[in-house]
Amino acid sequence: MKEYDFYIVPTPIGNLGDLTLRAIEVLKSVDLIACEDSRVTQKLLNHFNIKTKCVSYHKYNENERVNQIISFLKEGNKMALVSDAGTPLVCDPGSIIVKELRKNGFHITSLPGANAVTTFLSQISREDEQFSFIGFLPKTQIQIEKIIQEYSIRDLIFYESPNRILNTLNYIKNVRPNTKIAIGRELTKIFEEVLIDNIEKIIEYFEQNSPKGEFVVLVFREHENIEEKNIQNKIAILQHKKYSAKDISIILSELYGVNKNKIYKIAIGKQNT
C-alpha cells in the first residue's frame, strides 16, 4: 500500500459493519486519529480493536489544530481524519486542515466509504443522474422557501435534523404544495425508513409519528411548466441587464427556438408586475 502522510477515512453512518477493511487497516497503522468527538470514535475503534490514539478536531478548534498537526506530520508521523459518521469534508470538518496540508506539500489521500447522500440515492428511482446537494438548509423560513423555488427544475437533496424536519417540510409545501418528496432516516440502522410520497402525505405521517434520527430529503423537480420557468429565468436575467422586452424576445427566440410572441408576452407581464 502506498504511503501517505494524511488519510481521510469515512466511518459508518449507522451500521458498524460498513467500515471497510482498508479503513480498519489505515486506522490501525497511523500514529494518530483526528476526530470530531473522541467518545463517538472510541466506540468504533473499540469494536474493531483499534488501539490508535485520538485527538479532537472539530469546527470549533480547526484553526488552532492546524499548526499542531503540521508539526506532528513533519516529525514523520502519519495521521487519519474521521468524522462522527460518514465522510469528512462532506458537511463535516476537515476543509481547513486539508487546504493547509496541500499548501505545505504533504501527501493526502481519501478512502471510499459511507455517505448518507449516495446511500439514500441508490434506492430512489429518478429520471436521470442530475441533482443538487446543498448540505444543511439555512435556518429561516424565507431562506428555505427561496432555495426551494430556485431549485424547482432540478432534484434537490439536503440533510435535516429531527427537531426541524416538520417546519422545513411545511415551508416547502408553502411554495411547492404538490411536490413529490423522498425522505430517509436512520439509514443503515435497525429502524431505517424511506418514504416517497406527496409532501402533504409525508407531513401527515410525521405529525402522527414523532420524527427521530437524522434525515436525508429529496425534493423532486417539477415537471409542469418547466420550459416556461426556464424562459422566465432567462427573461429575468436579461431584464436585469436592461434589455427591452422586444430585444429579449428576439434574443431568446434565436437562441432557443421558442415562439417570439410568447416570450414577448411573458416579458411584458414581468415588467408590469
Overall description:
The structure is a single chain. This protein has 273 residues and is of the alpha/beta class. The chain folds into 3 domains: 109 residues, Tetrapyrrole methylase, N-terminal domain (Cobalt-precorrin-4 Transmethylase, domain 1, 3-Layer(aba) Sandwich); 103 residues, Methyltransferase, Cobalt-precorrin-4 Transmethylase, Domain 2, CATH 3.30.950.10; 46 residues. Helices cover 43% and strands 16% of the residues. The strands form 2 sheets. The protein has a 5-stranded parallel β-sheet, with helices on both faces. β8 and β9 form a beta hairpin. α7 runs antiparallel to α8 and α10 runs antiparallel to α11.
Q: For the CA atoms, what is the radius of gyration?
A: 24 Å
Oligomer: single chain
**How is the CATH topology of the largest domain named?**
Cobalt-precorrin-4 Transmethylase, domain 1
Order of SSEs: EHEHEHEHEHEHEHEEHEHHH
* Gross geometry: globular
- How much beta, percentage-wise? 15-25%
Spatial order of the strands forming the largest sheet = 3-2-4-1-5
Strand-pairing-aware structural class: alpha/beta
Give start-end ranges of low-pLDDT stretches: none
Proportion of helical residues: 40-55%
